[in-house]
Amino acid sequence: MRNVSEATVTEAVIYKFDGCDNPRLKQIITSLVTHLHAFVREIEPNEAEWFAAIKFLTDIGHTCDDKRQEFVLLSDVLGVSTFVELINNRKAPGLTETSVLGPFFVENSPALPMGATIVQDETPSDLLVEGLVHGPDGTPLAEAVLEVWQTAPNGKYDVQDPNQPEMNLRGKFTTGADGRFAFRTCLPTEYPIPTDGPVGALLRATGRHPWRPAHLHFMINAAGYKQLITALYFEGDQYLDSDTVFGVKDSLVVGPKPTGDGANQSVAYNFGLEPAA
Ligand SMILES: [Fe+2]
Fold it and tell me: Which of 69, 120, 242, 266 has the fewest CB atoms below 10 angstroms from its CB?
């Protein structure tokens, strides 16, 4: 097509994809072009602004490596991670709600025996976390695998902090026949998402704080059930209502209880999994 104009350019681009024989891909690319063009039509960026946008995305890519995922972070702070998660996890009552995966999950965390601590340095393991993994009718799920990960008291994950042992505060636990799990750890802490990259620059430029409330991440897999990615948050945290990645849900907020000896606390939580489609 020649002589495209402001009025016809969107239609011209969509027409280019008319031969796409994958209906879902065609739907996605058509919608993408429609909304992207509507955005440009509304914003009317000058060329310096458009180049800045391209440089921003280029910088996001350059900030990613095998331990850092800046695109996930961008998706998180724009609320898209939570939005996609909500669309894909319309839960029945009694099933555990989801929360953001975040950029700090790593594969191959160590398999640990039930009741073990995930703390690998001298930090006291003064928090007990225990509970049940169950199906929609409450049936305990044996052989469910829980992967857990969290920050150290300095607010950093092991992968962000060369002073922590590798795989510190990460572990993998498998439920027994009773569906129960238990492990020890320390209380996680509030932390700012990484602000030394382009996402941090975006937050600063727009007057947003980078903080997340303290939380303990879970990824739970059981045969025949949909993977559950969620997190537990803690009562009283000052960032519960302003989490920079929009991850907090009331049903995921817990209050650690003293266990009786004064120094230790415990959290009990039962995770309800949805059968696989
Ligand atoms: Fe996190």
Answer: 242
